[in-house]
Amino acid sequence: MSSVSAAKVLAPVGTAGKLFAFGLDVCRGIFRRPFQLREFIQQAWFIASVTIVPTALVAIPFGAVIALQVGGLITQFGAQSFTGSASVLAVVREAGPIATALLVAGAGGSAIAADLGARKIREELDAMMVLGIDPIQRLVVPRVLACMLVSVFLNGLVSVVGVAGGYVFNVILQHGTPGAYLASFTALAQMSDVWQGLIKALIFGLIAAIVASYKGMNAGGGPKGVGDAVNESVVITFMLLFIVNFVMTAIYFQLVPAKTG
Asked: For residue range 58-104, what is the model confidence (pLDDT) as tens digits?
């Protein structure tokens, strides 16, 4: 009985190890040839088509809520001139990458897990291995790179729409000054903040695609197993994203000194 309990306790550790090993296999497969360019373009187009509209719609309330909350807080301290900087930093550093990752994981990642899971239960992946075709290089690598590329572009979209939405809500609802909002961009913001957001989006897209691919390729139990794999991939991705986001933010603040006005 104790051995059974120990196996249940250690099962998540084994799953984490297998996921990490799968990620290493994917990273090695990126540098192997031939590269599946057509599959990469098709997957990038598909992921972008299912995420671009929800991303744009989510970015507007993200920017609005941040502008309202930050603007109201800063007003209490009498520093209205820094509302623009605070809102832009919040969107570019945190809201943009997180919103992008959640939508890529929820829409694109679930589609990847469902596709690979369906191939798994139809034994297509086993047939490919019998024919000497590596499923990771043929199917997983193009999807991972497509997720990473789309995440970077969607992060830019979220940043632009979020900043524009924050500007509109700050000027209209909080009666802020347009000139002060725009001029404060350079007061606290710096180019490294933009690079941090892009790197976060790139890594978040990598994590979402690897988790979705892993769960899909290890699905079992028929259609119900595929559905369970999709749900598990989204939940696991969300948990990993918040952990990785915290770690990356902590490292960034340690390496890059804050810019003072």
From this structure: 877 777 777 777 766 766 666 666 666 777 777 787 778 888 888 88
Beta carbons of 175 and 73 less than 8 angstroms apart: no
Residue 70: closest CA among 201, 176, 187? 176
93 within 8 A of 192, measured Cβ to Cβ: no
3-state SS assignment for residue 2: helix
Do residues 154 and 100 make contact, with C-beta atoms less than 8 angstroms apart?
Answer: yes
* 22 Cα distance to chain centroid: 19
For residue 1, what pLDDT is reported?
A: 45
H helices within the chain, ranges in order? 2-30, 37-76, 83-90, 96-103, 110-121, 124-130, 135, 141-173, 178-183, 185-188, 191-217, 223-255
pTM of the model: 0.85
